Amino acid sequence: MTIITGLAVLLAGWLTLSALRPATSPPTAAVLADSLKHDPTTGLVVDERLTLVVAQCTACHSSKLILQNRFTRDGWKEKIRWMQRTQKLWDLGETEPVVLDYLVKYYGPEQKAFDGRRKPMPAVQWYKL
User: Fold this and answer.
1) What kind and span of H or E run contains 24?
2) How many CA atoms lie within 13 A of 37 on its CB side?
3) pTM above 0.85, yes or no
4) With contact defined as beta carbons under 8 Å apart, do 101 and 47 qualify?
5) CA-only gyration radius of the chain, Å
6) Rounded Cα–Cα distance for residues 72 and 111 (Å)
7) What are the pLDDT digits (tens) for 73-128?
8) Were 92 and a residue from 32, 46, 55, 96 both cysteine, which residue would form a disulfide, CB within 3.0 to 4.6 Å?
9) CA–CA distance, 20 with 7 (Å, rounded to integer)
């Protein structure tokens, strides 16, 4: 097979697959998340509340702790209470609802249809080898 023939076969395959895909599709959560602007220093989503969140949250720990978690509002609030009980976090006062709003909006639970993992096997009975 020559290079030109090989390229023609690849192009034909690509065109065939492109024709099977819908012309437009609604944006996915990943696309919407990618459209948000992120702060280059912290990696957090840029928003009018970012400065407050950075001041309250990254004074003691890295923003990576925020980025790697996805909690509900109650979950984030419980994390704050845990830090106050065990890590000497100060009382956030009237800024707490603002911080929670930001965390839930950008780092709340994700709604994923399929994450690539198989579902757990139900009621497996293992046998000894």
Assistant:
1) none
2) 5
3) no
4) no
5) 23
6) 12
7) 999 999 999 999 999 999 999 999 999 999 999 999 987 776 677 777 778 888 88
8) 96
9) 20
